[in-house]
Amino acid sequence: MLVLGLMSGTSADGVDAVLTEFHGPADQPKWSLLNLVSIPYPDDLRATVIGLGQGMTLSSKDWLELAETITEIHAQAAKECDPQSKSQLVGCHGQTVWHRPPKNNKYGASWQMLRAPLLAKLLQQPVVHDFRAADMALGGQGAPLVPMPDAALLGKTNGWQAVLNLGGIANLTLIPPLKGPDRSKSVIGWDCGPGNTLVDLAMQTISGGQLSFDRDGVMAANGIPDNESIKSWLKESFFQQLPPKSTGREEFGMNYLERLLKTTPTLAKENLIATLTAFTAATVAQDLETLYEMRSIKPINLFIAGGGSKNQTMVHELTRRCKGIQVLQIEERGIPSQAREALAFALLAWWHVLKHPGNAPEITGAKRKTVLGVKANYY
């Protein structure tokens, strides 16, 4: 089946679209990537989406128009990726504007903004969307959802392998080996904490809005991380929490950054960006070390994807801190970094049609596996 996957993540950079073909067994599909297109968000739209994750308020009229704009940009990306409308199905994550994990016996909730019936009408194709709701109704975190697609798309090798997404939020997938005593263990995954979000917010602040991120990690490379501050930050409750766990800009936004900066000496801008960059790497390294201490699981490779994979200083810090683990780009496994999440949601849409579960209780904490997504037909 030809499936179009659409994804906009917590960085709110824009929409990634992939045209993919799937066939064969659901859990070990044969697949090929036929096209990849990325459409950036306008600056004002990106600012609004990021602001909403940090408590910004809108009128009902503005919410409605925002949903329409987001849907239209998704349609534009889809049409550019699949101009001849060859796909038979669209899997669309939508734009997360708020994520609330379950807590204190209260169900979690997650809002991925999209007018799915409108998108189906614009594309004249069925659209599978709202992938997180079913998992959360079963008591799950609703995130991360990419670990099971990661395992299906990458397959197993001779040792544990990890995939790290460095978007606005960093999340990990651990895939068990093909052989040996761990071969029957479950895929695992969780959100580690801030990926690029704190660095991006700090860059916007110190540049007066002229820069939205640290391109290639150049500013961080010219600074020196404050390791004492990093050690202190790593003691905070989220980083001590065991999986399943998920998070978003609601927790790691501007308010969080301002609170961090009150706990550390005044730093030159290069040192600040270096410290925040190293902090992201340190949260990942600490989680992997905890995994080894508690479950004797240590990946031989860590494949990195997402915008942060282009940050050379981030990559250097991960390599330095994740001792005994080879840090590689996910392209070495045949998946373009920009395509990885859109590809995952294309697969989840295909699984929806096949009635194949897309979640895993070991990852999200849901009571059981379930088929994910809601299908919107076109009219």
Commentary on this structure:
The chain is built from 14 helices and 12 strands. It has 379 residues and is an alpha/beta fold. The protein has 2 domains: 2-142 and 342-357 and 364-376, 2-Layer Sandwich (Nucleotidyltransferase, domain 5), CATH 3.30.420.40; 147-333, Nucleotidyltransferase, domain 5, CATH 3.30.420. Strand 7 and strand 8 form a beta hairpin. Helix 2 packs parallel to helix 3 (116-123), helix 6 runs antiparallel to helix 11 (269-295) and helix 8 packs across helix 11.
SSE blueprint:
Blueprint: E1 2-8, E2 14-23, E3 30-40, H1 43-52, H2 60-81, E4 89-100, E5 109-113, H3 116-123, E6 127-129, H4 133-137, H5 147-154, E7 161-166, E8 169-175, E9 188-194, H6 197-206, H7 218-221, H8 227-233, H9 237-240, H10 254-262, H11 269-295, E10 301-305, H12 312-321, E11 326-329, H13 340-354, H14 361-364, E12 374-376
Parallel strand pairs: 1-4, 4-6, 7-10, 10-11
Antiparallel strand pairs: 1-2, 2-3, 4-5, 6-12, 7-8, 8-9
Helix pairs in contact: 2-3, 6-11, 8-11, 11-12
Question: What count of domains describes the coordinates?
Answer: 2
The major sheet is characterized as: 7 strands, mixed
Q: C-alpha Rg, in Å?
A: 20 Å
Structural class: alpha/beta
The tally of helices reads: 14
Mean pLDDT: 96
The low-confidence runs, each spanning 5 or more residues with pLDDT under 50, are none
CATH homologous superfamily name of the largest domain?
ATPase, nucleotide binding domain
Indicate the percent of residues in helices: 25-40%
The CATH architecture term of the largest domain is 2-Layer Sandwich
User: Overall 3D geometry?
Assistant: globular
